[in-house]
Amino acid sequence: MIRFEEIAETVQLHHPGADLDVLRRAYVFSAVAHKGQVRASGEPYLSHPLEVASILASWRLDPICVAVGLLHDALEDTLATPKEIEEKFGPVVLHIVEGLTKISQISFSSVEERQAESFRKLLLAMVDDVRVILVKLADRLHNMRTLEHLGEEKRVRISQETMEIYAPLAGRLGMSRIKNELEDLAFQHLEPEAYKDLTKRVAARRKDADAVIARMTGVIKDLIAEAGIAARIDGRVKRLYSIHQKLIRQKIDLDELYDFIALRVIVNSVADCYAVLGLLHHALKPVPGRIKDLIAIPRPNGYRSLHTTLVGDHGTPFEVQIRTEEMHRIAEEGIAAHWKYKEGQPASQDDETFAWLRQLLEDVQDPKELMSSLKIDLYPEEVYCFTPKGAVRTLPRGATPIDFAFAIHSEVGRRCVGARVGGRIVPLRTKLKNGDIVEILTAPGHHPSRDWLNYAVTSRARSRIKHDLHLAERQQARDLGRRLIEREWKKSPLRAKTLEEETPRIEALGKELGVGSRFDEVLSSVGFGRLDAASLVEKLTPPELRGKTQTAPVKPNRSVTPNDARISVQGVDHLLVYRARCCSPILGDPIIGYITRGQGVSVHAVNCPNVKNAMVDAQRRVPVSWEPTPGETYPVRLSVEVHDRPGLLAAMTTAVSDKGGDIRRAEARTYDDRPGMVDLVVRVRDLDHLKALVRSVKDISGVARVERTSLADAPQ
Ligand code: MN
Questions:
Q1: Which of 364, 598, 633, 649 is paired with 505 by a 20 to 30 Å CA distance?
Q2: SS3 573
Q3: pTM for this one?
Q4: What is the pLDDT of residues 422-448, one digit of tens each?
Q5: Does residue 77 carry a catalytic annotation?
Q6: Around Cβ 219, how many Cβ atoms within 10 Å?
Q7: Residue 528 CA, ligand 1 centroid: distance in Å
Q8: What is the rounded average pLDDT of the residues 476-485?
Q9: Cβ(309)–Cβ(145) below 8 Å
Q10: Per DSSP, what are the bridge partners of residue 261?
């Protein structure tokens, strides 16, 4: 078992003057918490947090991070409480430990291949401190190194998870050394036969390979030294899993592998990189088409290097990678190397993966602050949630349970009546967060509500909701149409028969009028306001009976005026729309619609008192907008307070006409004891027109106040 003192020394080496006290306390805490626990290997459990801390220290991470390594299993596997950890180690340590606990609660066992990427993104998105991921990777690395002590089923499950989630994650963060080790370890447990076979074949070539490495290292070392360039050279045989993948992917044999052997030349500057490449190409034979300038065009994860393949003395090809010390560290340690280099000079990767990181490097001046402020937000557009069975669903940010429900199945969406997130009932407007486990509650016969359009963000959900609403509206329009027709019907000589008995004639008339030849279509045409109920009934009445109808002039019903084409209901066509008389909104007024029971949509000004009082049913509110119609005018009522003087009314009507307002009514009342009132009804084009008009009325001497008042209670 590694000694704590060794870890402390490593931390001190990389962070001179760091506070080692927190480390020591974490060690003692962990030792007490895990006391008596034993690993599958038979070792005391404490060996695991110690090893994890040691790995983190070797990555040169800060003391906080190493302390978390010591504490990482304390919350989950011991009696330690979050409160204790916070009190002893502060909120930052607790935050990271809790992040780790959160990750470990996600079950990856049901991960399908195609979901792996979502899970990896989820991990990155779920944590807001990159140290969580780093500790998790160190934890996983040590568990993989000691996997042989577990039973086969566990080994395979953990290895699969490592191969699908953690190794690619390390790769994404540019930590290729960790990625490589994780892959080789997982490979061993997932494909033991292939692993054994390949190990044998590689071992057989090992001696030759080592000889080539030794000879070529010597040759290259001399070449570079002669040119006066300082360099460090090391050689290696390609690692197993990487060989395995290449052989399978390219369907080739081990002999055909160009990079079975690779030498690495590490120099001091980019200029030296290219100089060395030139020297090598001059002295040794390069293989055409194998030269890669990954300095000019780095890999997406930030990897930079020059690659070339040369032919050795016995005709054995080998790869040479040329890079600077900085490139080398970043190639091996990825994100773990970045903040270290901030102290020297900013990393200059010109790629997308590290764009967010680069942004942070630029934003954060003090490298010590970087770790704590490093918020992972690699996928700001997406949110990852789970079904209760653990399947992941990727949704856009801002998505709600409604979107989730429709993402599962349109029937689930349609029948959705509620949702539980993490076991708790939440409002359907709740924005989902990464890692939420969402359960949709459904009820048979339930239908989408219009309100859902305010919460749903996915186009899938929105289009289904609109479709359903549309169907419901047609039904509503049919019901409304029937009521309107029946009202006229009862007043007409036709009333001896029922509507149904006259269906053939109604359908014939519908066809003639071009609104459709089905009874239902005629009803909905009336409901949508395309056809007037009174004239329909009139047309159905035989001419000889028409005169006997009640002759009182038919006034349009107040609440059911003809459809107002100047207003459109968002997302819906052909709904009966009318402007509410209480506020009589005009073009330019902010408006809102309200679905009345059976009478279409009444449109109010947003500030109409009725909006606040009568429109209590939020579900029935619907967004509406103006459809500017040239030449259209709107009646407005103005109540003008005046100090009586001769010619005032005339001055007022002149002012209004001068501004292009059309006066429909003007009535003046004067009193002895108080200011007089002039009541005007004026037709205006829009709100701006009204404002201009009001201004010029206000300018008239004798006018005290001008107020827009409700047309509804205007004297008739
Ligand atoms: Mn652990």
A1: 598
A2: coil
A3: 0.55
A4: 888 898 999 998 778 899 999 888 888
A5: yes
A6: 17
A7: 66
A8: 83
A9: no
A10: 237
